Amino acid sequence: MSPNTCCICKIFRAEENGISSKLSLEEVLQWSQSFEKLITSKYGPMIYKTYLKTEHSDENIEFWFACEAYKKITSQRKRISVARKLFTTYIQPQAPKEINIDSPVRQEIIKNIQEPTQSCFDEAQRIIYMHMERDSYPRFLESKFYQKLKHRLQTNGDNSMVN
């Protein structure tokens, strides 16, 4: 067994006591229809984040959902506080969970961070969504992680997923 498979098994065991027992085959199969279906389903984002951890890129989905929450903030004071936190966590160079965005987008956020608007992270969020949709989502669908999960549900909860 490869170290990567071990990692996947360990992660799945950790998740197994939580959401995987609540997953339906129908939901899991819908994830392969589109990235949008995965990210908007009940358990898809949590399972996808678990997979992204194996690729060391879970900051992408964290940032995307943080932006979704940010857009709902109505208080300017809270918006400034959350915008600064998003900036220091994901945007600034050498941030602890720095996301992969191009320099012009980063510079525009830096320019607007003092008076952040509801949409100041929209372009960065769009880029991260595209990265996930084009890069990690196809790998997720082909991964042993997703294939074993799907197989396990197809065989009615057979314990073959966990070695």
UniProtKB/TrEMBL annotation:
<feature type="domain" description="RGS">
    <location>
        <begin position="34"/>
        <end position="150"/>
    </location>
</feature>
<dbReference type="InterPro" id="IPR016137">
    <property type="entry name" value="RGS"/>
</dbReference>
<dbReference type="InterPro" id="IPR036305">
    <property type="entry name" value="RGS_sf"/>
</dbReference>
<dbReference type="Pfam" id="PF00615">
    <property type="entry name" value="RGS"/>
</dbReference>
<protein>
    <submittedName>
        <fullName>RGS13 protein</fullName>
    </submittedName>
</protein>
<dbReference type="InterPro" id="IPR044926">
    <property type="entry name" value="RGS_subdomain_2"/>
</dbReference>
